[in-house]
Amino acid sequence: MANVAIIGAQWGDEGKGKIVDLFTQDADIVVRFQGGNNAGHTLVVDGEKTVLHLVPSGALHPDKLCVIGNGVVVDPEILIQEIDGLKRRGHLQDDSRLRISEQAHVIMPYHKAIDLARERLRGKGKIGTTGRGIGPAYEDKIARVGIRFIDLLEEDTFRDKLQRNIEEKNFYLKAILQEKALDFNEIHEGYGRYRVRLRGYVTDTGLLLDREIRAGKRVLFEGAQGTLLDVDHGTYPFVTSSSTITGGACSGSGVGPQHIQQIIGISKAYTTRVGSGPFPTEIDGPDGETLRREGAEFGATTGRSRRCGWFDAVGVRHAVRTNGLTGLALTKLDVLTGFKKIPICTAYRYEGKAVNEFPASSKVMQGAEPVYEKMDGWDAPLDDVRKFSDLPANAQKYVRRIEEVIGTEIILVSVGPGRERTILLKNPFGEA
Ligand code: GDP
Ligand code: IMO
Ligand code: MG
Which of 111, 176, 271, 280 has its CA 20 to 30 A from that of 410? Predict the structure, then answer.
């Protein structure tokens, strides 16, 4: 009985939401295990678009269980808005279909204030964070001063922890970041309301998952962000603050690694990135504009325009290795229709030398030049293609070449945002 992890293989926004929604039909439970509402996962079902930031992308399937695992940092205000929005549209009617880990950390107003103020002070050197307080919330978790859902539920524990945090954070905000102090009472009251509203969803999700897996239920682990934004394995410091790789699925859900049998990386047929940081295959010119326009490359969370570039096999190979990918889903192939030539970056060159492995050095990464292999393009739109053999010959060659240069099997090709616009080559849940 396979459990499956879906992991971003690039810098995020690869189309994880679409693929998770699609595979949810073969799963019983969908678990988010890291990140927070920096994520924006887009689902398009029967022409209707839904963007989810915290609720797992299985939420449009009424009979599935959605779990927000211990590794997620949760902004309760945003979560409540998201639950309400889904309910208004007829989803998530049964509250028992959503569970939040009692160990998940709570994003506090000072996390957002610190995130925004630091970015402002960094000026040109900013990371380009989503400004949602993600980094400061994870800092507090690692510094052992964070507030978890279980702490929020216990009124005295919460008061005590908030008091200590507010003292320290207000000093930091005023003295170092030149910001205004935050008001204890206001936060205490507001979070008291969130406690009442969210209490019913909070449980020991690690235990729940273990029981369900033992009972033969199938779990889909939904990654957020992507491997190249991973705090250890990404383009540090231009990364997010969590473990976005498969290892994070275990630590962020409390499930042992033996329970994850299939690990599917998601990659666009080209590359995008939001925020600052090195991006060797970034296109400076009209082809980049074409990708942005045809791929509607604007952030699902912040609306920022995404930087666009060609497929980077060095980065995706790094994702294959660090995640132990068993297969790759290639999305947005339709967006490449119309290009005469489509470059694939197979290696970098730095100071005249070939670089085949993803470099840790920011200097090397900043100065890396892509080594391209140019593939012939195709003109036919792909929107209605549902069988690999119906793709134009050059599109088939492009996919097969990517498979060769990254060294892992492509199990799915996506040709549009809609759930149905999919060419499935191999179902990771088996013949489910
Ligand atoms: P995620 O963060 O990985 O879930 O990805 P996002 O939702 O942030 O960004 C992916 C965008 O591409 C969304 O607007 C999707 O609706 C869209 N999308 C997903 N797959 C395809 C595809 O195969 N073709 C096209 N044209 N759009 C796609
Ligand atoms: P999904 O799950 C793309 C980027 C931000 C910034 C860096 C750090 O939709 O793929 P943070 O707010 O996390 O401290 O920002 O990470 N980033 C994402 N980029 N997709 C995402 O999520 C992202 N989440 C964070 O733009 O460069
Ligand atoms: Mg996204």
Answer: 280
Q: Ligand 2 within 6 A of 224 CB?
A: yes
pTM attached to this predicted model: 0.98
Domain that holds residue 153: 105-198
Domain termination residue (choose one: 173, 198, 223):
198
**CA distances (Å), origin 101, targets 33, 55, 145, 153, 199:** 10, 12, 18, 12, 11
Q: How many domains does the chain have?
A: 3
For the CA of 51, the closest atom of ligand 1 is 7
Q: What is the CATH number of the domain that holds 171?
A: 1.10.300.10
Q: Among residues 21, 26, 28, 41, which one is catalytic?
A: 41
In 258-308, which residue ranges form alpha helices assigned H by DSSP?
Answer: 286-294
CA–centroid distance, 20 to ligand 3, in Å, is: 12
pLDDT in tens, 126-181: 999 999 999 999 999 999 999 999 999 999 999 999 999 999 999 999 999 999 99
pLDDT in tens, 255-304: 999 999 999 999 999 999 999 999 999 999 999 999 999 999 998 788 88
Is 41 tagged catalytic? yes
- Looking at the structure, tell me whether residues 322 and 273 fall in a common domain: yes
